[in-house]
Amino acid sequence: MGVLRLVLADQLTREVAALRGADPEADIILMAEVHDEATYVRHHKQKIVFLFSAMRRFAEELRDEGFNVRYVKLDGGENSGSIFGEVRRAFAEEDVEELVATACGEVRLADDMEGWGRKLNRPVTIRDDDRFICSLPEFRAWADGRRTLRMEYFYREMRKKTGLLMDGDEPVGGQWNYDAENRKTLPKDYAAPANPEVVAGPIVDEVKDLVEERFGDHFGTLHQYAYGIDRAAALKRLDLFLDESLRLYGDYQDAMATGEDFLNHSLISVYLNAGLLTPLEICQAAEERYRSGKAPLNAVEGFIRQIIGWREYVRGVYWLYMPEYKERNALGAERPLPDFYWTGETDMHCIAECVRNTRDNAYAHHIQRLMITGNFALIYGVLPDEINEWYLIVYADAYEWVQLPNTHGMSQWADGGVLGSKPYASSGAYINRMSNYCKSCRYDVRKRTGEGACPFNYLYWDFLMRHEKKLRGNPRMAMMYRTLDKKEEKEKRALRESAAALVKRIEG
């Protein structure tokens, strides 16, 4: 008898732990498209198309290696609708005696998997997911006893561990972080690198039809679908970024512009988070561009920090604090998510533009997420559960282990400061400085209150006043509150009234 080896949709690599030691003669590899995983939140259509297509392609590659793959399509006649249901059905129909799986990336499924051995009355082995640079025990050891868990210090440890951008024990260039150089605005005549069209192919075409039939009411469109579905396509996308975009990635990584959906961003997170690329190979390739003089240090360091810093760090935070972490609501936010997060129908041009990009591409870059849609939700006071669910639904690279800490902690400060030392709240001035959005908006970014004033302006000051008791003592908020103190009571009252009027208009 052989082993049943389970491969999940975000584990699409031959190096995943569950496949180590697999015997092509005796073992069965199980992969399944199931309704439960496509609908526990109503995932963006493009995310479902990408994952189902990539799963089908990976199954083909495994079969080409000689493995026996039991692949269950969503529209397969006996599909049980759940991963456990397909595991149980495989045990009933195949000559296997035990299950080997790789640890999943979400507490929701992990809790379910813990009980599978008892339910099946079969041996179940869940191997650690070692595709990350920092193991979970290593992160717990790093976090133990620390008063605050600041990513910057974790990032330095990962630099030392990997040797990336290091000269012996010291960082290349003498600094760990070059973020201060990475906040330039786009020149007026800037032309973003081209984003070549991805040829879909028969697998994607078939899955698109399936998704429109089964999940046609989910958020998003498919007409601009542009994701490759295998490792070869992922490597091609990575090389394109390194050759064409990395050089100016650092300079313009925080910039935004109307109609520019991607600018110099890499667009590789969807592949990385699904297993088609590995973090170390990406960072080593970027470092090589710096060492060979093809990309500047500020760009390469900023890019590497996103991967071995933030990505590894938020995974550690997620597993360290969940499930309690998700229940935190440090600012007591309770307002419902505005409808325009789904429709894009708002006179706030910045939000309309980011929602359009998200709808059409299942993508928005980190500043669009943090300082436009996230910033508005923060200063408006959206219930954390609702904005968390939105982010998990709308992006093709979103999995709870990476989405939740970024949204709940960094964007919404709902964790009370575990991730971020202060809330990432801003007025319209930041948006105006880092984008050209305000030029196409009916609101006046220079106006703080009343008809025609930018909503980010009065919501920002209203936010500071609403949460003064909690935030005034924060050293990083001191300058904001000194500015607030200089405002006359008449202006403060006008700011509150403008904010209340907006809430009334949005909530009806």
TrEMBL record:
Top-level taxon of the source organism: Bacteria
Protein name: Cryptochrome/photolyase family protein
Sections of the chain in a coiled coil: none
Organism: Parvularcula maris
Cross-referenced InterPro entries: Crypto/Photolyase_FAD-like_sf, PhrB-like, Rossmann-like_a/b/a_fold, UV-DNA_repair_photolyase
